[in-house]
Amino acid sequence: MIIKLSEIEEVFVARGSMEASRFAEIEDRSIQIITPVAYELTIRKFDNLVTIQGPVECTMSITCSRCLDDFTLELEASLDIKLTPRTKISRVSEVELKRDDMDIYYYEGDEIDLDPFIYEEVLLNVPIRPVCTENCKGLCPVCGKNKNVEDCQCDTATQTLLGEKLKSFLN
Ligand SMILES: [Zn+2]
Ligand SMILES: [Zn+2]
């Protein structure tokens, strides 16, 4: 969604959604976004400074990093950024600005496209090591069974490198 700053008095709420297909670059075999990405962003203007805040939500199918089962994850992110106009500020102050506040962005002219910020917010909030449940037991390293589904009788203690060496030594 593109917003026009000149049309905003002080506050404007941008409600909408982005089609899941727009996030194709995020997706791979382990991540699939299955609902449109919904947002409700409050845009405030303070002179030239613009703040954009609000929830960004979608549902994704993602692969558990322990048991390798796909599960459904409700992604609930919260966008919170500031934008200042891109002017001819010196490089020094630009560096200082970045150091002080990592969430400062720039805009040019009268329009701000919200989509890239929503895209980035989703990207930043995809878990790196997703787990289906906090106590997911994962896969058995010996037989490969999903231990959430079925308990196996494998003796995992002897499967360590040291265990293997001990076994061959004792034999
Ligand atoms: Zn799992
Ligand atoms: Zn096993």
Spell out which ligands are present: zinc ion
Number of strands: 8
What coarse outline follows from CA principal-axis ratios? Answer: elongated
| Tally of helical runs | 3
Span between termini: 70 Å
Kindly state the percentage of residues in helix.
10-25%
3D architecture notes:
This protein has about 170 residues and is of the alpha+beta class. It has two domains: about 1-135, no CATH class; about 140-170, no CATH class. The chain has helices at about 90-100, 115-125, 160-170, and strands spanning about 1-5, 10-20, 30-35, 35-45, 50-65, 70-85, 105, 110-115. Strands 2, 3, 4, 5, 6 and 7 form a six-stranded mixed β-sheet that branches. A two-stranded antiparallel ribbon has the order 1-8. The longest helix is centred in the last third of the chain and has 11 residues, at about 115-125. It is elongated.
List the helices and strands and how they pair.
Blueprint (H helix, E strand, L loop, with lengths): L1 E3 L6 E8 L12 E3 L3 E10 L2 E15 L6 E16 L5 H10 L3 E4 L3 E3 L1 H11 L35 H10 L1
Parallel strand pairs: 6-7
Antiparallel strand pairs: 1-8, 2-4, 3-5, 4-5, 5-6
What's the gist of this structure?
This protein is α+β, with helices and mostly antiparallel strands and 171 residues long. Helices cover 18% and strands 36% of the residues. It folds into two domains: 2-136, no CATH class; 138-171, no CATH class.
